[in-house]
Amino acid sequence: MIPDDHPKNIDVLAVAPHPDDLEITCGATLAKLVTQGKSVAMLDITSGEPTPRGSYETRLKEAEAARVALGVPYRYNLNIPNRVLMDCPENRFTLATAFRKLRPSVIIVMAGRTPAASPDHHQGHLLVEASRFYSQLTKWDDRFAGTSPYRVPHLVYAPVPFDAEQRIWHGSFTVDVSDVYEKKIESIRCYSSQFDEMRFKKLEHYLRAQNASVGGRCGYLYGELFALPTPIGTNDFLRTVQGGDSTAAPVQLPGRDHLPLG
User: Fold this and answer.
1) Are residues 195 and 253 in the same domain?
2) Domain enclosing residue 30, as ranges
3) How many domains does the chain contain in total?
4) Is 2 among the domain residues?
5) Residue 165 and residue 226 share a domain
6) Least confident among 29-33, 52-56, 57-61, 71-75
7) What is the DSSP string of the chain?
8) pLDDT digits (tens, 9 = 90+) for 167-207
9) Is residue 213 part of a domain?
10) Position 176 in a domain
């Protein structure tokens, strides 16, 4: 749960159903945000237990080790039951209360369907969207532990790299994580109960290939993909096209900064 001495008005809150989900989908970006001086927190909806591997105590220790590896200062767990996670009113109240307490500027949510893996992933996606709406509701404070309504300004999706669907997002962008990518790998390695050596090698190979492919299109060694529920807007055409500190578009010089693919 969220402790009483939690920080408020954090810059970015990243949310996913299980410990290790955020590391796999957007761990490098979280590490990069920290190096840029942003306030960042991770929020696991469940403990991830029971599973065929590990234990509740083991997963907590692994999640903490992964947080340290990424350099993220805060990590919380709502302890909603694993395996039966659903987008339902009771869970919306719990998650929206966390949003009201932390009051983030941006929420990152792991997004996508994984039919060969836990259905919690898709339910978590839906739950975050609904809880963001619930967080702003008035005349219902008794359902949110007496907290004040709060409208989360921005929602960003961290697409599952093995989503069952091919999605067309209204807006998408890639973050250059080349300088912090090894922190992502180190954080995933912390989950030894979930990834033995052989399983970890397969996952590392897949993620490096996927992040290299995503980043390579922008001229980066490694990149992490993000998407938005709305188009990317701008009032500065050239800055957006040419690249800048506040734009989602990188500077691309054909034949030099990216592969000749477009």
Assistant:
1) no
2) 12-231
3) 2
4) no
5) yes
6) 52-56
7) ---TT---S-SEEEEESSTTHHHHHHHHHHHHHHHTT--EEEEESS---S-SS--HHHHHHHHHHHHHHHT-SEEEE--PPSSS----HHHHHHHHHHHHHH--SEEEEEE---TTS-THHHHHHHHHHHHHHHHT-SS-GGGGTTPPP----EEEEEE-TT-SS----SEEEEEE-GGGHHHHHHHHHT-TTT--HHHHHHHHHHHHHHHHHHHHTTT-SSEEEEEESSPPP-S-HHHHHH--TT-SSPP--BTTTB-S--
8) 999 999 999 999 999 999 999 999 999 999 999 999 999 99
9) yes
10) yes
